[in-house]
Amino acid sequence: MSVTTGETFNLEKDIERAIVLLDRLRTTSEIPETELQWILQSDFFDAVSELAAFAASEAHSYPRVIELSKTAEGLAFNVMGAREQNSPIYKSCIIPNGIAWKHGGLQKDDQLLSVSGIFVENEHQKAIDLLKQA
Description:
The protein is mainly alpha-helical. It has helices at 11-28, 33-40, 43-57, 99-103, 124-133; strands spanning 77-80, 90-94, 114-115, 118-119. It is built from 5 helices and 4 strands, in the order αααββαββα. The longest helix has 18 residues, at 11-28. Residues 65-134 form the PDZ domain.
């Protein structure tokens, strides 16, 4: 049996759901709290905790997938990055009332990692070409 949902994988959402589930188990079940605490002392939760702490200390967040449908006005955000040095590509401006602004998932200074599933980190011209084709 397989189950298909319309949602994409999202680490933050999965962790939030796990916490809600553990809280419900703690308050409504007969499972001893010590056993629930043991679940949280796993390599997975330790790794997630370390990654989140590192990302926060470096002022980074988890990569996330943002899906936008291009309109006649385009995607309504600008990017910047040094073409010659192949430096990271960042969103420099989210155009008010455009599709990206209305979506709300993009922020100014977010780094662009891929376009339509194609990795473009540090490849400015490739990113521009793919954004135009999107």
